[in-house]
Structures are given as structure tokens and as C-alpha cells.
Specification:
The chain is α/β, with parallel strands linked by helices and 258 residues long. Helices cover 34% and strands 15% of the residues.
Length: 258
């Protein structure tokens, strides 16, 4: 399968997204620490508003009407309509900016990242998944087609750091067992969640896999859960407090001006 456009159609398929993808407090602590002392923050690809700090002035930018509606339903500040590759803001307009699990949806990632750097005085904070580390999670054995999609869509860490420039730090983020942000690795110890189509619809990679193939993949997992095979191989994960997989936080600080 060749992905020619990485953007997921949230207006068609993302109406239940916010019910599954919520702010996880453990992960949020890493995000908010990365924003340092910033008082003004731009959130690009803001979605339903997860991880937006409540103690800063946040401007959200979100192109999907369905996602903006979910912000309103959750009582979040309304988002501006816009795209990452054409930010409607002056140079260095914000103390910090954030783009969380969104870069892989951008058709022109490099331009979007340069725009983030242009409008930001201080740290640019990117939450993403390292495509090289995706096969380390057990779902690669059950859902290889989904992992193949993800590896095509997620940019490499080298690409991100080169596009942003400055001084870049990459943190591997441990995921808690009861993580409430329903990306795939959030269910490392709760495999039954993947049998729920609502859970899968909140993970955009499934939207690039044919429905018939999805059913085959899910049935493979269901069979191994029923037989106990999954637990024989991975059962220790059901009680493992944290799992460090492919989730990464990249923090780019601009070089000092002469």
C-alpha cells in the first residue's frame, strides 16, 4: 500500500474522536514541562484540545469542523480555522508552540514545521511516534498492515530535527497502563480494546486499511485472546505499570541570536 496523502478525513470519520483521545495526566506533565515558562502558546492541529495547558494563553488552530465541534462540546476555547503550512501569525508571535500527534497528517510537513519555527520565539514542542520503533510493540505481530501505514506516515526524527533546526532534544515518553489517550500503544496491556470499532476509529491508521482486512486482523487477535495465546506471549503487560515504545516528545529551542 502506498500512501499518497497522509491526511486523515476527520470531518468524515472523526466525530467520536474526543471520547477516546483524552489528556493523559502522566503524558501531559512532559508536555507542559517542555513549554517551560511560555505564557503564550500556539497549538497547531489542535483537535479537540487535549494537552492544552490551562494556565497559559493558548491559541488553537484546527482545520476540521468535526474536531472544532468537539472542542465546543468539551467547553474548550474555540479554535481558529487554519493549516500548519500557512500560519496566519507574525514572526515570533508566540512564546512557544505545540503540535501533538498531528504532524503525520500534514501534506507538506517541512513547510508546516518551518512555519511553526517562524512564529515561535522559544520552544517548539512536537509529540509524535518514532517510525523506527513502531515494530517493537506487539501489535506489529497482529496488525502488520496498520504498522506499515504508520511507518509511511510518521516522519523520521532526523527529518523533524532538520526541518526545525536549532537545538533539539528528543524524549522517549513512558505510557501508563491506564492511559486515557487512546492511541495504539495506550492499550499495550489492554488488548481487548482493539476489538471495539470505536477505539479503532480514534486511531487514524485504521482508516487507511480496507474494512475486510481490518476484520481479518481483529479476528486474529480475538482468536488468540480466546485461546490464551496472547497472554502466553504478552500477558506480563497486563500489570506492567509503564511501557516505553515509540512515543516521543521533540523539543526544539532556537539557536541564540548573535
Amino acid at each position: 500500500m502506498i500512501i499518497t496523502n497522509p491526511a486523515f478525513d476527520y470531518d468524515q470519520f472523526g466525530h467520536q474522536y474526543a471520547s477516546q483521545r483524552q489528556t493523559d495526566p502522566h503524558i501531559a506533565a512532559y508536555v507542559h514541562a517542555a513549554l517551560a515558562g511560555a505564557q503564550t502558546v500556539l497549538n497547531v492541529g489542535a483537535g479537540a484540545g487535549s494537552y492544552e495547558p490551562q494556565d497559559r494563553y493558548v491559541v488553537a488552530l484546527e482545520p476540521s469542523a468535526a474536531m472544532r465541534a468537539q472542542r465546543a462540546a468539551a467547553g474548550k476555547t474555540p479554535a481558529l480555522i487554519g493549516r500548519a503550512d500557512a500560519l496566519p501569525f507574525d514572526d515570533q508571535a508566540f512564546d512557544a508552540s505545540m503540535a501533538l500527534v498531528t504532524v503525520h497528517h500534514w501534506p507538506d510537513m517541512q513547510r508546516g514545521l518551518r512555519e511553526l519555527r517562524r512564529v515561535t520565539k522559544g520552544p517548539v514542542v512536537i509529540m509524535t511516534f518514532d517510525p523506527a520503533a513502531l515494530p517493537e510493540f506487539w501489535n506489529a505481530a497482529y496488525f502488520p498492515e496498520v504498522i506499515a501505514v504508520e511507518q509511511q506516515r510518521y516522519p523520521t526524527l532526523d527529518f523533524l530535527t532538520a526541518a526545525l533546526g536549532g537545538q533539539c532534544q528528543v524524549q522517549a515518553i513512558p505510557i501508563p497502563l491506564a492511559c486515557v489517550d487512546g492511541f495504539q500503544e495506550a492499550y499495550y496491556g489492554r488488548p481487548e480494546a482493539f476489538l471495539n470499532p470505536v477505539v479503532r476509529r480514534a486511531q487514524s491508521a485504521w482508516g487507511f486499511v480496507a474494512e475486510a482486512t481490518q476484520q481479518e486482523l481483529v479476528q486474529r487477535l480475538a482468536t488468540d485472546l480466546a485461546s490464551g495465546e496472547w497472554d502466553r506471549q504478552y500477558g506480563q503487560l497486563r500489570t506492567q505499570p509503564f511501557f516505553t515504545g515509540a512515543l516521543r516528545l521533540l523539543i526544539s529551542i532556537p539557536d541564540a541570536q548573535p
